[in-house]
Amino acid sequence: MSPDRHDRPSRDTADLVDAPFEAAIHALVHADHGDPFSVLGPHDGPDGTWQVRGLFPDARTVEVVDAGTGETLAEARRVHPHGFWLAAIDGEQRPYRLRIDFGTGPMEFEDAYRFGPWLGDLDRHLFAEGTHLRLWERLGAHPTEIDGVAGTAFAVWAPNARRVSVVGDFCNWDGRRLPMRLHHGIGIWEIFVPRAGRGDLYKFEIKGPDGTMQPLKADPMAFSAEPPPRTASVVHGTPPWTWADGDWLERRPGTSDLRAPMAIYEVHLGSWKRGPDNRYLTYRELADELIPYVAGMGFTHIEMLPVTEYPFDGSWGYQPVGLFAPTSRFGTPEDFRHFVEAAHRAGIGVLLDWVPGHFPADPHGLGLFDGTHLYEHADPRQGFHQDWNTLIYNYGRREVQNFLLANALFWLDRYHLDGLRVDAVASMLYLDYSRKAGEWVPNRFGGRENLDAIELLRRTNELAYGEHPGAITVAEESTAWPAVSRPTYLGGLGFGYKWNMGWMHDTLNYMSKDPVHRRWHHHNLTFGLIYAFSENFVLPLSHDEVVHGKGSLLNKMPGDRWRKFANLRAYFAFMWTHPGKKLLFMGGEFAQEREWSHDRGLDWFLLSLPDHEGVQRLIRDLNHLYRELPALHRLDCDPAGFEWLEANDSETSVLAFLRKDDEGRMTATVCNFTPLPRHGYRLGVPAEGWWAERLNTDAERYGGSNVGNGGGVRTEEVPAHGRPYSLSLTLPPLGTVVLEFQAGTA
């Protein structure tokens, strides 16, 4: 359709505007031009002149002035009623500025359309290949200086868009003002905006391929965002930081090795503790309070529920829209960096719960980003997650895989994080995950395995371990997929560790039974040792077990109040001495009674009660014992480090096992999961000498009845359990004792 008479250049400028140029102006003023740099900015004119062209809908006057002297080079004329201006200037092109009066007096501006491309040839090449592993250095919003002019370079991938503009505080959110340059072939749009700087709000205004205007989109690569429920991105960039954690990074490989003790405190930063009026604590306040607490409790690592920016508090961070931005709920990127550095100074590793499996369909997010199914599959059988009403990444698109790979590396590089716990791996591995027949699309071989997701996970792990010594990856994977934590060169997925979900479910099921019935479920506790060394396992008691009506850990335990606490203490000692690294969700360490809620802090007042304080003291002692005794951690992931002493005494609900290291050190764990104390319990052991009682969950200091073995027990030459020596033990009611072999010690 040709423009009507109100949409044409004025008659007195007809000499400057031919028909093709008129069509280009029409497209620009209607925010529908895909190549604005071919029209706007400085261009050669006829007869040795040059022209400066600009789109300033609200301007009253526009002048082109010499950048050095401020001398007026030409007054521009409005050549279109919707605000297209053109100035013709004699002579050779020179540096210039624009002097514009919007009705409040003249102001000088740099012209965004006089600057060259932000992306270089190598950036374009790597992006086209899907191998730009430092993507965050070029895409997003980067405050920078070009030709001595300060501003911000914006770049975004939207290959199917008809037109993309950056909008924000710096252009009154007018999508006509700053349409972007398209790099054909790779689909990246970019522009350098003078005067735009750190703290400015912005989004992208995108017109889809069919001409439909999309909702304003947040920047997928934004490094900061407005506090929810507001949704704009915030110009921040990646300024250089001086870190003071070099000592930690140097010794970090020794803290994450399979032979190292690893006790992880899982925390939701927004509900660990609240400030006055139930406000969130900031990253800096958490650095001052959470970090010393975790260190004092003897944990080795903090694992944060996702802090990548997310719109809905109730998702706990598991529906992120800003994968490159630490949530602004708790402060700035610098504040988050401070939190990580504080942890490292305290000798605490920091793990991020990373969510590459899905993303929400919020209109400002990745869904239909450029008017097409860009990040997600178009077919809902592949691109829609039925359980969570979210969208699933198209892992087979090289740009999407590049986006996720770069994001994983970003957190390890930019924020010095010590590892990634990868959420919902099973949902990524299986095309038929939580789907009925006919609701999923087989892979090219007709199978149910998501080959593209497998490739992404393997490559993520290879890069994480290859580029960041001492960093780890942990899979939340709930099926029997083989070799999750085995190297990719052996056919594995390449994770360092895998959550042992089967152990968690079996043992919690056992502990929920009344002791009178436990004899019938005894092997819920022993079954896990059949497969305990098939992977490098983390034993998780995670946030998922204390929400949605499941009750707290304490309230899963049967019996009266005394028995609940005794059961929980005995269970914790069983867990801490069982093969595998440890993970406990916040609140469990002091027997939180209420279910966890993201809307409030933990019930810290409970620590004024002796029973709760006793559980906290027990966890502290277990952490220190686990770290102190090599037998309890050195061979956590090696079958040589474990031996049953008694696995079949279901009648009395007693079990006992050895933990060993590779230098002959040993501990014995003996659990009595009935409320009856057992005196003179005969337990065969492999070595003669003194077995010191290092921990007893029934000790008075933990809130127990103080039934135990004093300082320890000496072996007797009485054969038992097929061994030449044995111990005559007193087993406390609903208690676990941990004995350390000390040959020859009285």
What keywords describe this structure?
six-stranded antiparallel beta sheet; alpha+beta; transferase; EC 2.4.1.18; eight-stranded parallel β-barrel; single chain; 14 helices; 21% helix; 746 residues
DSSP strand content:
15-25%
Overall residue-averaged pLDDT value: 95
User: Helices and strands: which structural class?
Assistant: alpha+beta
What separation lies between the terminal Cα atoms? 100 Å
CA-atom Rg in angstroms: 32 Å
Please state the overall shape, judged from the principal axes of the Cα atoms: elongated
The spatial strand order of the largest sheet comes to 16-17-20-23-24-25-26-27
How many beta strands in the DSSP annotation?
35
Fraction of residues in H or I helices = 10-25%
Helix count, DSSP H or I runs of 4 or more residues: 14
* Biggest sheet details: 8 strands, parallel, barrel
Please mark out the parts with pLDDT under 50 across 5 or more consecutive residues, or reply none.
1-6, 8-15
Domain Glycosyl hydrolase family 13 catalytic: 266-633
Subunit structure: Monomer.
Pathway: Glycan biosynthesis; glycogen biosynthesis
Organism: Rhodocista pekingensis
